[in-house]
Amino acid sequence: MPPKKIAIVTSSTRSPRLNPTITRYIYETLNKDPEIPTRKIIPHISSNTNTDPIPIPETDIPDTDPRHITLSIIDLKSQNLPLYDEPIIPATLPASNPAPHYKKPHTRAWSTVIQEYDAFIFVTPQYNWSVPASLKNALDYLFHEWKGKPAGIVTYGSRGGVKAADHLRGILTGLRMRVVPTSVGLPVKFTGVPVGTLSEEEEEVFIDERDLEGWKEAGVEGMLRNLGMEIVCELDKN
Ligand SMILES: Cc1cc2nc3c(=O)[nH]c(=O)nc-3n(C[C@H](O)[C@H](O)[C@H](O)COP(=O)(O)O)c2cc1C
Fold first, then answer.
1. Which ligand 1 atom sits nearest the alpha carbon of residue 205?
2. How far is the CA of 105 from the centre of ligand 1 (A)?
3. Can you give the pTM of this predicted structure?
């Protein structure tokens, strides 16, 4: 059995945006965590100064250990989904094979992407006390592809985006996903998109050191580990 696949979903689609940087922070935090069973190698260093396991690149020899999980990133921006335009209601399609019933090629393509994964961590900003329309839209396109799969929620916003997390928990529960209890909210008090300093083509928005420090003090890495382990435990039940 191949390793289980968890996708970390980047949800905002504007430019420039903070979401890819936050997603990468979560990917790196989970990938290097010793408790999360991503494939790791011990570097060949003779001195005992550094024996931390480090993640090996995804492009290396295929991992066939069924106890492992692999983490990947799905960026909704690169999916280019238009506003929902299917004439059908996804939940009414045959559960075992909904894809041929979609009328639009972009829905079939999106269905193929999501069918590949066993679980998801949605990383989203708060927009006006909820999730961005881009995330709701991408979720609405499908039903059976999400149904029954474990899901975790990470939000960010000036106070961590708890209202977005509450809305998202409701939406994912409606899709019959198995939402894990821990959700993580990252307050971004100092990190912002500096007005006028970035062009639309620039993606990279750095996380302000003061926010990183605040997250560290609040034990964010431990919370992310709990979220990751809850998803791993849910996957073990499959
Ligand atoms: C349309 C819009 C609405 C927003 N509403 C909220 C809000 O309700 N609460 C909050 O804390 N931040 C809010 N923000 C701030 C965002 O959380 C913050 O700008 C974040 O960096 C946006 O993520 P992004 O850059 O990946 O799009 C809002 C931002 C936008 C663009």
1. 25
2. 31
3. 0.91
Collapsing DSSP states into helix, strand and coil, what is residue 127? strand
Do the strands 119-125 and 178-187 form a parallel or antiparallel pair, or are they unpaired?
unpaired
Of 126, 190, 197, 208, the residue with max ligand 1 atoms within 8 A of its CB, to mutate for a pocket test, comes to 126
- Ligand 1 centroid–CA 126 distance in Å is 5
| 116 CA distance to ligand 1 middle (Å) | 30
Domain that holds residue 134: 4-236
> What is the C-alpha to C-alpha distance for residues 31 and 177, in angstroms, rounded to an integer?
23
Ligand 1 centroid to Cα of residue 218, in Å, is: 21
> Which ranges constitute the DSSP H helices of the chain?
19-32, 76-79, 105-115, 133-140, 162-174, 209-217, 220-236
Each residue's pLDDT tens digit in the chain (238 positions)?
789 999 999 999 998 899 999 999 999 999 999 999 997 654 444 444 444 555 555 555 777 777 789 999 999 999 999 999 999 999 999 999 999 999 999 999 999 999 999 999 999 999 999 999 999 999 999 999 999 999 999 999 999 999 999 999 999 999 999 999 999 999 999 887 655 666 766 667 889 999 999 999 999 999 999 999 999 999 999 8
Token readout for 93 is 């399609």
The count of structural domains within the chain is 1
Residue 231, domain CATH: 3.40.50.360
